[in-house]
Specification:
The structure is a homotetramer of 363-residue chains. Chain A has 363 residues and is of the alpha+beta class. Chain A is built from seven helices and 24 strands. The two termini of chain A are 37 Å apart. Strand 13 of chain A pairs antiparallel with strand 15 of chain B, so a sheet runs across the interface. Chains A, B, C, D: InterPro entries: Cupin_2 (IPR013096), GDO-like (IPR047183), RmlC-like_jellyroll (IPR014710), RmlC_Cupin_sf (IPR011051).
């Protein structure tokens, strides 16, 4: 008789496995350990993309490929080498560098996929979200949650580049996406410093009485660098003064939230900003779910699955699920990160493990 | 035989009603229409208190009654004339003017009752909440949610007065309150401009990673006037520009929220700030639940149950449940209000009625 | 100068306190310890009502007072001796014995107040809830949540009595109640064994696809004795077999729930059923919030605030907030209880203390 | 210059696209319409598996392949022809026929993946969930939520087959799975009719006081056919009597729920049972998210993406996202279905479209 290891060593077994295939069936026992590993074994790999190389390709694309209807965006996706044939940074997350030349416009459209932009350098582009023009400046996080019309236009004669983050891989995988084309030009070409959404919503702890209905995604279209920077600065000062404020010694961090719920900005994407003091080091963490980080400023090293990488402003790296990561700061070290945390949390798969620390029950 | 109207007109009935009392029973049928009216029929009455009179009594109390352990606070409660024998502004809400002379200290204590302070004039006092000194300035809302130690100290040689709002009547009614004395002096006599709580939490849309646990009450101890004022100013400008932002024409308003949930600042008390343009008028509203308002700046009239009252800076008025109210602004008219809305909402008794408007189903 | 104890010992103070009253103000410092006690100090008292006495008065009321429009119900409310001038069992809870003679009808009406009936003996009455006739039998819990039309009719020639529980005191206190008269006769005089609501909802763990919207109150109008009895029986058997199932040794209990949420049956009232084995004894508990119990079957003692009372079938007792209670069973001892737990929980005032046990943090 | 269609028609463009690949990047514009289609365009196809063929292969596997540690289960997964190289019924859902010979044991293990079993015929196996033996009988739904130890043993000398449903594809995709081996034998070989979990939880509307903490997954391990059948029978009778109870004319349905929340039984899997009267026909529906159905009893047709399939007892079919489906019943037609609905709902991608009907806003 045959052991439960999948080897087809008799004519009957050979026939059985052939019939499996003919009937669109497959045995569990030959693939159980691949399908259900002892701990997450992602195909995606930890990987670092260099901003200089990305920006160079973006600039050349700007010269060679016009932006327009159909392709919609001049966006170049980080393609995780462990996920060949895709342009996915991780199984769930899309991350691209988007480039818009002087006075170019990326046409309006809307889609179920949730999206944000984060700006590591430059300014001069307005993203217009449901008719509300939102300035994009260094250090800002800009949201375009699912099914909001949006386009971008560059109001200057200089190019600008930034990163886009979306749940495109998840949406493609789970077959949840809808798409509609909108206006060829943005629907409002004004270039105000502050969006209407901020004027309504960016007041700490205050909610307009005209907006008491909770919203699936944040109604705040822009999270400005001046607020993020101030929040992180204060956390480190509080730590200096002996008060609890930071994640761990020398490591300040904020999560961007939906002011109508206090939860994540969008149902599938979590956004955070981390700051390490010069010389600080994080614990090593294993986390369920995947992440993409971008260095915003400073220099340091990231250790991904045991391998150390030096990274500097603009560099991006992907951390697949359960791959241990830690950071070390040579200078003050500022990093933006986004993850699929809301997916993991809402479906109750959250687990974190810190080797050498006391860990809560891991189930 | 006896009709169901409670008149005891036979010896048997007389005996029956006597036996009711002897057995600690009472018939429903003689009191049903009082107990269960067709619509809310509060005993509390609409009432206006004048700031000048309050302040005068507060000042005299400051001269005659020292603040100290036992009495705890030099606070004078608004006593609704419809609720004799109490110092309740409405059945659920306590509102008092509190007065602290130069260099006086109100000792620390904590209690289950939720409390806030709102400042209509003056400055120079710090309220110390769980060891965090919080400056009190004109237009600020300061929170001391249930079971947080708090005391106040006046860092100047000038007196200061403000209003306290608490759920003392509800807590007393429902027998839910605990109380503990704390330090005679405040536990931190520093006088920083900004509290530690604000340094951690008062960044729009940002949440510290060290504070991801949701909290019953807002972790933000102070809502500063500059933010409130800016939010209201922007709503009216947006209205001018043709965008939806206000409650109704000329009427801007914000609700103070708990940034960990987007909901009310405390489980029993809702706080809001309203601004009317000069000349604006609100709709008339009936609302389940009671409220206390204070004019912060400007002049106008409030119509309470059909009676018009002129009110000006500092004046307070109580609006019992279902009493129709409306406001008319002579100048720009700024008002703070607090209500028992979270109690009403969480227990699903919410109803609003606007005479002459389309109303949603009233059940 | 005057100490903060309220004694008016100078002409200035006498004048000050007179002016307080004239201005509808009251000092906090003279009443702070009454208003804000160290722990809940209810005016309501622990009290036992005897079923025999209640039933006798109910029967005599049935002879002398017809049921009908206006008075609406032949219901006799438990009047807590600590709350004189009311017919309140506790500050928040109404409990009455209701009596309906053979072939009598209590007319239909609806109100915001939430109500239930619990049957300690007898049968033959149908309560008709929004047109759905619901049989009332011994041991059953029947719900009429706020704003559902309901009437009762006795389909037999024998009288029937049961208890009603409502949030009438809370609704009256907080001014939240609306009331409407309905049909003089019940709108469906059928007398089915099982209501339509049960046919849709009383299937364990199953929810009709036509009822996927969550509901404020349970859509299940009847919780039948056979289910309650079986659940309690199984808990005690599981305990016998060595498995965790009971609250404490020999003490089984169930909470009645809203199947659309798993939470309490109504937003203001919690209903439970407790069973003690003969000889069993509960721990002594202090709980925030008030309760009314009815002995359903068996004999035992209840200790309320240190005083022991023997109780038997039908006897009712009120337990005000924080009054310590414990039960001792002489025979198998079955008790129904209802509380204002949802009010206490939703407003975050919950606390429990078990003297001599380890208690979780009491804040 | 190059149009945004991806054709590399100059040396510069050819070099650019080569450099994309070298830098682990990929352009969005050449793949945007595949990645972000106008509506969901699943690779999975609608497909029907025949029970007779499945059972025949299962029986032969029973003869040839022993069940045991490593392979763990003699389970044969439905392999959607649109997802080659996998054994996935849909992108998110695993469905397998599992076969256990007389007196065989499938060893205990636990995993993060959520699982259930549904029994279309036979009996005699007990699934032991965290030490609680749960009988498996025709029509029953049995749960083994994530991280619960479970094994199966056949207490008879006859084989038994059933279907397993899991979120294995989702867990593999999102890299969230953990796995641990347990006992080689089941930890309790008893064969009670009713599990302990049912004895605690299968009482309609009742919750043990020892189980007041809400649970991520249902604590009820078995949903028995007698309850499901009765619920469906009553819905159709109520429809006959003129009362709202069914999804649409002649179509009764229940959702299996977690009694602690009223929501889905597990965080990733929704389970339902549908019954059509003979002659009834459903509307055609497009739904976001994928499903697997099994005919439990009766005969009829299912139309999947416009193609009609006759199906009978035991037959299974997969419905990928947004593929229109409808059912027509020749006899009374009973079907079990499970879907990834909780994933879709919790991440806010839910949409339904009924051609020819009024549809709510589709965004």
């Amino acid at each position: 008789m045959h052991q439960m290891d999948g080897t087809a060593d008799t004519p009957e077994l050979t026939q059985l496995y052939a019939d499996f295939e003919a009937e669109s069936l497959a045995p569990l026992w030959t693939q159980r350990d691949d399908l259900m590993p002892m701990s997450p074994s992602p195909k995606a790999v930890p990987y670092v993309w260099r901003w200089k190389a990305l920006y160079d390709i973006a600039r050349r694309s700007g010269d060679l490929v016009p932006v327009g209807r159909g392709g919609e965006r001049r966006a170049m996706g980080l393609a995780n080498p462990g996920l060949p044939g895709t342009a996915y940074a991780t199984p769930t997350l899309w991350c691209a560098i988007q480039y818009l030349g002087g006075h170019e416009t990326a046409p309006e459209h809307r889609h179920s996929q949730n999206a944000f932009r984060f700006v590591v350098e430059g300014e001069g582009v307005w993203t217009v979200v449901n008719g509300d023009p939102v300035a994009m400046r260094r250090g800002d996080l800009l949201l375009t949650p699912g099914w909001n019309y949006h386009g971008h236009h560059n109001d200057t004669d200089q190019p600008m580049a930034w990163i886009d983050g979306l749940d495109v891989p998840f949406s493609h995988y789970a077959d949840v996406g809808f798409f509609e084309f909108g206006s060829e030009r943005v629907t409002d070409e004004a270039s105000p410093d502050v969006s209407r959404s901020e004027r309504l919503w960016a007041h700490p702890g205050l909610r307009p009485l005209s907006g008491l209905q909770d919203q699936t995604s944040s109604p705040l279209a822009a999270y400005r660098w001046e607020h993020t920077d101030r929040a992180l600065t204060e956390q480190l000062k509080l730590e200096d003064e002996g008060h609890p404020a930071t994640v761990e010694q020398g490591h300040a961090a904020v999560r961007y939230t939906n002011p109508t719920t206090g939860g994540d900005v969008m149902p599938t994407i979590r956004c955070e900003f981390h700051r390490l003091r010069a010389g600080a080091e994080t614990a090593t963490r294993h986390e369920v779910g995947s992440a993409v980080w971008q260095v915003f400023e400073g220099e340091g090293t990231v250790v991904l699955g045991g391998t150390e990488h030096r990274v500097e402003t603009g560099d991006l790296f992907a951390v697949p699920s359960w791959v241990p990561w830690s950071l070390h700061a040579d200078t003050q070290f500022d990093l933006f990160r986004f993850t699929d945390g809301p997916i993991i949390d809402r479906l109750h798969f959250t687990r974190t493990y810190l080797p050498g620390r006391r860990n809560e029950d891991l189930a």
